[in-house]
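Open question from group meeting: does this chain pack into something compact, or does most of it stay loose? Before anyone orders reagents, we agreed to write out a predicted structure and look at it together. Recording both the input and the output here so the notebook holds the full record.
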Amino acid sequence: MRNRIGVATAIRAGLSLLAGLATVGCSPLGLFDTLVPKDGGVAKVGADIAYGDAPRQTLDVYAPRRAASRAMPTLVFFYGGSWNSGTRTGYAFVGRALAAQGFVVVVPDYRLVPAVRYPTFVEDGAAAVRWTRAHAAQFGGDPGRIVLMGHSAGAYIAAMLAVDDRWLRADRAAIKGFIGLAGPYDFAPFDVDASRAAFGAWPRPADTQPVTWAGAGDPPSLLLVGADDTLVRPRNSEALAARLRAGGVAVDVRSYPNIGHVGLLLALARPFRGRAPVLRDVAAFVRARE
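Structure tokens returned:
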């Protein structure tokens, strides 16, 4: 009992830290990931796999331990951090939570600001997806049934890959869905330090916005927002949904009351699933992508 109380106290302290640092766009999830109970029945089946030549072009793969009777849906999850922070090692709880639902899950790192600017992190995302399509079958995943998913800045990367065929080209045919958690999709002009640093040098701001490219032919989308998110306002998801619907794309926007920017992501973790049915809604969307 005493150990459980200690872990709970540490998690609460970690949440307080996360909430404070989220206001400045940080992604300090390592401590949280270490402490939080994780789903069983899954394994990290691939670690530190290179999908490119740069040190940050590496990824991890999670999958159920028990072999499935058919190829499983494949998810590629991009974490957030204002395009300037984050590491896949802080997101094992996400990989395991999704894998426990019967999916093969790829969590890539990508190059960050200030070492790079737009569009390098999107190009890295595309390279990770191409690697996934080429190798998913080795881990039991379906290379022709890939769903892109991301939180915050990671949702931006996933969205660009889903709606703008400049990045994936022929490989975009394998993308059967997009899931965005608290994503920035319509944020030009760039009025905060993080967006100026990542996108401010690009001569055509509209080129960088998912809402510019969204429309007919894009994959079905699930856009999740926290009603109390003050970092990435829910209007971003509403704007993207409007563009998708205008193009005849199926899109579902779900808003969870009393949930903020970081809380939306943490609802995937076992101790916090009662706060919002994020994992349930994500899993149902992925299973419907036949």
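Observations to bring back to the group:
Residues 1-11, 19-27 have pLDDT under 50 and may be disordered.
Strands lie at 42-50, 58-64, 72-78, 104-108, 141-151, 175-181, 221-226, 251-256.
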